[in-house]
Prior knowledge:
six-stranded mixed sheet, elongated
Amino acid sequence: MMNYKNTLNLPHTSFPMRANLAICEPAILKRWYKDNLYEAIRLKKNKKKLFLLHDGPPYVNGSIHLGHAVNKVLKDIILKYKGFMGYNAPYIPGWDCHGLPIELQVERLIGHPGIDISPNEFRNICRNYVLDQIKIQKKDFMRLGILGDWARPYLTMDFKTEANIIRTLSKVISCGHFYKGIKPIHWCFQCHSVLAESEVEYNNHLSSAIDVTFSAVDSIRVSEIFNINLYKHTIELVIWTTTPWTLPANQAISVHPDYSYQLILINDNRYIIIAANLVDIVMKRIQCLSWKILGETLGNSLESLRFHHPFMSFDVPIVLSCHVTLDAGTGAIHIAPNHGIDDYIIAQKYNLKRINNIINDKGYYISDIHPTLNGVHIFQSNNIIINLLNQSGTLLHVNHNHKHSYPYCWRHEIPVIYKTTSQWFLSIDKYDLRDKLLKAIHEVRWIPEKSKSSIETMIINRPDWCLSRQRVWGVPIPLFIHKQTDILHPHTFELMEIVAQRVEQCGIQAWWDLKVEDILEKESDQYKKVLDTLDVWFDSGSTCDSVIPERLKYHKHLPDLYLEGSDQYRGWFMSSLIISTVIKGKAPYREVLSHGFAVDSQGRKMSKSLGNVISPQEIIKNFGADILRLWIASSDYSKDMTISDAILKRTIDIYRRIRNTARFCLANINDFNPEQDCVHPENMIAIDCWAINCALSVQLEIISDYKKYNFHNVIQRVMQFCSIEMGSFYLDIIKDRQYTTKKNSTARRSSQTALYHIIESMVRWIAPILSFTADEIWRYIPGNRSEYVFTEEWYDGLFSINSTQVMSNNHWNTFLNVRNEVNKTVEQARLNGIIGGSLDASVILYAIPELANKLRMLDNELSFGLITSSAIVLDYYEKFNRIIHKQEGIPGLHIFLEKAKGKKCLRCWHYGLDVDQNKNYSNICARCVSNIAGPGENRRFF
Length: 942
């Protein structure tokens, strides 16, 4: 028997079925950097329109985690897609290099500056530590396939950048928003430092909530206000607080001017004042079963009345404030100006006597506050204070398990407090800055759109920005202030430029080495140096002014996009917006895109304590970077992104489908030379035109989704194209023609032309996401081409079905519906044991005239489209009594299926009555004989 295998055009490619990404990707990376791919892209795109994504610098402290990977990959996807859109989209990576976390790491290694090591040596070690961390993180980022100017990143600790940060600060000062103030700021006892708003997160916390009484200094006056005679009795005002430790700092009691307050007799022996709307709640809380309302008045009538402190020897006034609410408590709040923003504002309004802090920087009560509190940490003081209140008879009620939201240091995950310190601030309200910020927000596109209202709320509610820190490793606030008045030197801006020039040469150490007399000479005895450092958010927030102008090609271009995690609305997005609006009068970005965070299958954040951490290094080692990139792109990044072993497995399945589709295309164009073998659209087989038209529609949808940054939709559409339009239809149908027709026939070259156009398009679709795989595919596509897909733009060789094509889109939609119903019939017959596969079947389609005419147009090629051995179309009413499948979804169609007649062709596997009719070619059909030894068959539709 003759072996017909050698007469077939069987697929062949060296493109491997198994990706082995973890092994192959490093070799691809090595080639990219050997060929200087990033610079090659810049050279190719040099004259294109600029798209500038400004990189928010990650903090250099430890190996990258999944959040870093999500952020950098999203940026890389956008910049690569922008390249395909015809933009010059450079990427300058950056790092945030100063600040407390680095200090803490170095302290653990070598000790405390000024104690175990000199501050100068400490700064030098911090710098070296940062450089080591950058090497680690850079290697990990590059392994992800991120293309960028890794040889010239920007570092906030570059001498030039440090100098420019000082210059940016000088601009802020010149705009009049800079001042020195004494006010409460979030303070972390472990950091020994003030915290920025962005360094504080709010967690559920258990506190001791207490109801405490302050007794009236003048009960007669209080009685008169309530219009009742209680001259011989003590009258008490009840406050409620969840911070008992602040009571020693009390300076006043605040009530709302417009709320009603009632004087109440409780338990027949005690007279108290509380808000009228809270009486029932308070009585239930203090378990008072019997009470009597004696009088009522508005809060504003209580102003200036004085009450004794519950356990200390001074009295305090009643003040009015609208920040008092009826959500909880008693309607009266004790005011400790040193330990609360609202309290501080009230104290300023009423010019209350300001006392020194009652605690030191580590949280311990200082001496002379109260004999029983000296040397006690405030977080261990509750029981002591409650005992003092009990002894004085002023404690009405205590709940040790009051659950509420409380500020925590995000770094140490411990509770923080408000503590009054002398700091440098940026005023948010001066010169209408708050209104300008709100206006700037409206000129920016926020993605997702709901985030616009979030940052608006933050701007509306945010306090002034505390810019100063009392740290060692940071950009200094290089000011000279008068020793007596604290007023800035009259030549501050000239002096700051002198300092900036020195920093530009020697780094921030130049400021610490500088002596006052080196610059001020005759005035040196009148002025002193400011030794504070800048908040690191000023470092990164000022990069739109301190870094971008240094890249001369881009200095006139407003960044098109900032992209960071959603926590940066109160971090980098916020600091950048404030600084840019102050010095330039506008936002530093055109678009802001934020993403969620990686969580486990239960929605929990990654945490070592929970044991649910999945590192990007682990994923890359096991599966490859493209799988990690695909998971990121497939996820809806506008929410928290769930990852687990099961999800990674599904991601791998998606990857295999895409890779296998590409491999099918490559394997079937292995002998195709596009310069010689491409078939003109007018001469192509109808279904090949349909496939190219389909690819064009998909490309337009994909480009639209890329433009909207909807990457998960891109993956869904690519997956649908590979699985449905291609895998379940087109690729399945063309196998017969591709394998069995003559090698150089129009029929075969037509399908190869379509496959060539499809893979040229598809490799570009996936390149921003599956960068390693796209690079690999690119090198297997035949024809003359550039070295790398990343220098290209979207493929322009696709075309749509037009009036010159025999089959219109409407015809194809009809056929696809019919084929779907035939497939259902074939599958049922297979399950019933009537046939083994679709080529075992013969079908008769009974159709009404309109449908029948469309199907008859396909003539004897209908069976190729249905992948059956034969298919004929008869009039709908000729069905007689045959057992048929009726499809309600297509009115006017009935399907009859039976086992195909004749013998099976050993070459094409179709059944027919013409098999074995040629004595020279046994066991094959006439069609195959013609394709082997004759002129070959002609195809028009399939």
